[in-house]
Design the sequence.
């Protein structure tokens, strides 16, 4: 009864939460398994950003409950945003759940599972569903454990929870609560521990990561708490790269822009949500910036790093979006030249102000606009990748690829690169000359001199070439 499978839906924050739960369970004596069919316990860590994500999780839970026919002691739990959003009402659809845990109670999952399993082992009546959805002060400090992984190179680090914004399309403030930040020292200590275990790159996570410490940690020397944190992480020996997601445009003051100039470990890749290129739509979304300000941020960042990589979030078909509004979005999309983007067709989220707005856009219009931006993104991504052919990129080697003797890693701009290599390169920064590009990937050869140096002695030949 101690084999647990965790299925995660949604964002990187959810992935990090699942990882923390897995670490806590393993410390309690549970086995974390990769095969759902081999598990005695299945936990679904859910997402509520879109209705489709909730419906997938509900469908999965409905399918999994059949396991009870052959294993009466099978345990099924739902955690995370959908649990927080739907609350006890979710039990009307899923009455067979054993566990329903909200976003501030992940750290109590081991205790709850212990009670459920002990009750089932006693062969008494099946216990009532455990529901734990209440807010808990200090819960942001509980997401700090990591599930050990062999030769781990990159790690997510949660620095805060919650959101104080009121975007009209978003359910996150309801599911994650108000902003709550961890102390700088606690984050630094966590990252130092990760680096000691072989991690070379961290990605800082928060609902609005650039709001870190707002109202609780004072500015110093004109620098926000978030930039202070970045400067502390820059000083950690052995840490090679720092990334973060997701920020908000209003967080890009001069101190953060200059951090991209001054901090060598801060990668020149930015996820900068736009949502819409129409000021009218931004007001309807309650986004506190306009397109002029957004363009200025992009220009300022490119001024300190001309080769800056940009990704973004876009919503097409927000209520009331006209052809002119979409054209404005498309023009900003083209002008910035995003290297990557998450393009969403607006879907109604019950409980948000936008759900009751008039002039809902027909589904076929949303689909057409979505496809138009996807085609533009593909062209932009290919153009950027092709521009890298012939250049030498610094690659953090993550591990073996799918093909024999081929390894993968990412450049500082978060582009996936495939190249011939060996296990000794994992976790190393390797210069790779790019020889070929596709829309989503780059292919190249490590520089011979670098391979010789990493190998600890002279080598007699160039790395073998392998077909992509």
Sequence:
């Amino acid at each position: 009864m101690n084999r647990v499978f965790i299925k995660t839906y949604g964002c990187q924050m959810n992935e990090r939460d699942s990882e923390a739960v897995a670490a806590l369970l393993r410390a309690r004596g549970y086995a974390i398994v990769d095969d759902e069919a081999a598990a005695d316990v299945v936990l679904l860590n859910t997402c509520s950003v879109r209705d489709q994500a909730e419906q997938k999780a509900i469908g999965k839970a409905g399918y999994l409950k059949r396991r009870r026919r052959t294993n009466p002691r099978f345990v099924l739990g739902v955690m995370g945003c959908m649990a927080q959003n739907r609350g006890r009402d979710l039990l009307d659809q899923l009455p067979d759940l054993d566990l329903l845990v909200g976003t501030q109670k992940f750290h109590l999952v081991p205790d709850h599972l212990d009670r459920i399993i002990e009750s089932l082992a006693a062969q008494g009546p099946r216990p009532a569903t455990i529901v734990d959805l209440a807010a808990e002060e200090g819960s942001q400090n509980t997401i700090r454990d990591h599930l050990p992984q062999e030769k781990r190179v990159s790690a997510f680090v949660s620095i805060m929870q919650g959101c104080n914004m009121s975007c009209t399309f978003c359910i996150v403030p309801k599911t994650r609560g108000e902003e709550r930040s961890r102390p700088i020292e606690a984050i630094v200590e966590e990252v130092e521990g990760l680096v000691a275990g072989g991690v070379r790159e961290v990605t800082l996570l928060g609902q609005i990561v650039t709001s870190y410490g707002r109202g609780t940690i004072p500015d110093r020397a004109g620098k926000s708490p978030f930039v202070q944190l970045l400067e502390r992480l820059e000083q950690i020996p052995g840490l090679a790269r720092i990334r973060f997601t997701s920020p908000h445009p209003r967080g890009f003051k001069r101190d953060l822009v200059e951090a991209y100039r001054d901090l060598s470990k801060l990668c020149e890749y930015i996820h900068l949500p736009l949502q819409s290129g129409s000021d009218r739509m931004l007001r309807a979304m309650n986004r506190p910036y306009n397109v002029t300000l957004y363009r200025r941020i992009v220009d300022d960042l490119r001024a300190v790093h001309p080769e800056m990589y940009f990704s973004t979030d876009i919503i097409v078909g927000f209520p009331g979006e006209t052809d002119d509004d979409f054209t404005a979005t498309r023009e900003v999309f083209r002008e910035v030249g995003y290297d990557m983007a998450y393009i969403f067709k607006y879907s109604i989220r019950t409980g948000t102000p936008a759900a009751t707005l008039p002039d809902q856009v027909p589904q076929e219009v949303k689909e057409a606009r979505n496809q138009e931006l996807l085609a533009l993104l593909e062209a932009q991504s290919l153009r950027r990748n092709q521009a890298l052919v012939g250049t030498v990129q610094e690659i953090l080697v993550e591990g073996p690829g799918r093909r024999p003797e081929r390894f993968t890693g990412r450049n500082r701009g978060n582009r996936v690169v495939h190249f011939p290599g060996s296990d000794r390169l994992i976790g190393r920064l390797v210069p790779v000359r790019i020889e070929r590009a596709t829309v989503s990937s780059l292919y190249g050869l490590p520089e011979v001199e670098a391979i010789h140096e990493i190998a600890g002695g002279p080598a007699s030949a160039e790395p073998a070439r392998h077909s992509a």
